[in-house]
Design goal:
With 196 residues, the protein is mainly alpha-helical. The chain folds into 2 domains: 94 residues, Orthogonal Bundle (Arc Repressor Mutant, subunit A), CATH 1.10.10; 95 residues, Arc Repressor Mutant, subunit A, CATH 1.10.10. It contains 10 helices and 8 strands. It has a 3-stranded antiparallel β-sheet. A 3-stranded antiparallel β-sheet has the order 4-8-7. A hairpin with a 3-residue loop joins strand 7 and strand 8. Helix 1 packs across helix 3 and helix 6 packs across helix 8. The radius of gyration is 21 Å and the shape is elongated. About 8% of the residues have low confidence.
Amino acid sequence: MRQFEEIQADLLEWMPRRMHENAYIGIGHFFKERRIPLQIGLSILAQAVQDGFLATIYNQPVRTTVEIMSVDNPYPQNGCPVRLTSKGIDYVAAREQRRADPVLRQPAVRNAMMWWLRERDPEGARWTRRHDFVASAHNYFEGKPFTSSDVEQGVIDLEEGGSIRTMLRILLKLSPEGQALLETAGDVSDYLKMRR
């Protein structure tokens, strides 16, 4: 998921923890806590409203609603009042359900590791520390980091499938088979299905 979409998803999950049913809340704190520049925050908010996940107070356009923010204090406590729509509530529930499903997490961690290794070293010539994956932006599934057991199982699966080589499962690099996988199938699960 691109960073913009990830921030929007994080915003949608942040809201239920701070609002009562059908209440409008200000989201200035969300952007301030995450150090998101105002213009990016406005774009994310406008997209969430356009996608039908959020509704602004009185159904005003986002820019009109946000104009009440002071230029000197772009993140007032009550900021742009919005509420989750039923579509937004359903999105949050579905995301939490996907995140909890190990059947979805395992293919996701394998794909994330493979693409991360490819970015780090496309030729598969260098060893890369697994810990660096854990610290990377690739280490996320549906807005939350993979668990250590997800990462461990992903390394095991990729090594046993011949997609990566490891040294003590701490140092990793793409194998020639792994490089071919990314060039042809692009998805670890699809590749393994093709090989069966």
